[in-house]
Amino acid sequence: MSYQWDVFISYPRAGNVTGWVKNHLAVVLEACLVDEMGHEPKLFLDSRMEVGTYWPDELANALLKSRYLVAVWSPPYFTSRWCVAEWKSMCARERVLGIPGPANTRGLIYPIVFSDGDLFPTEAHAVQSQHNLSQYAFPYEQFRRTEAYLEFHDKVKAIAADLAQRLESAPTWDETWPIWRPDAFENPPPKFPRLG
User: Fold this and answer.
1) How far apart are CA 10 and CA 105, in angstroms?
2) How far apart are the C-alpha atoms of 67 and 80, rounded to whole Å?
3) Domains of the chain, CATH where assigned
4) CA distance 93 to 177
């Protein structure tokens, strides 16, 4: 076995970030990576999972087999049990590999700020190289027809160029890398009291 995915896109399913990732970031990043790499990159996006897939296992397996994590940070990211588990999994892999460190200061997490970095936890603030795309955080299709979209495209193009270089030097895959999972699933409370 080896890597199956180049990039795992980690984002919360809350607020405007979901539409923005699907309508803009993933589409432009994928196209720009093709320009940089010369072949179709393999991006894992949970909305592309096949119907009927047991998604907790699919997410864990995809993360284990991904070279890099592109984490789309917003306040809901750090309150999502799944997003935090994905982030912590890649942090644990970095610790196993001893990165970032004196010999290699680049980690395996590529943070992109969608909104409000002031509310991020201390660990996130420690990461200095964040790409702030918050001024382009419009989930709507109409965003593509604005001048700001050209600026957004240029920013994502620079991200893709950087990611393409990093992907070439990704560490050798190891099936024993740790994977964090959210707490055991709890039954949600019933919405209405049972009668009788």
Assistant:
1) 22
2) 22
3) 5-168 (3.40.50.10140)
4) 6
Q: Within 38-119, where are the H helices?
A: 55-64, 81-97
What's phi and psi for 52, nearest 5 deg? 85, 0
Per-residue pLDDT of the chain in tens (196 residues, 90 and over written 9)? 799 999 999 999 889 999 999 999 999 999 999 999 989 999 999 865 454 555 578 888 899 999 999 999 999 999 899 999 999 999 999 999 998 776 666 889 999 999 977 778 888 877 756 789 999 999 999 999 999 999 999 999 999 999 999 999 999 999 999 999 886 334 443 443 444 4
Cα 140 from chain centroid (whole Å): 20
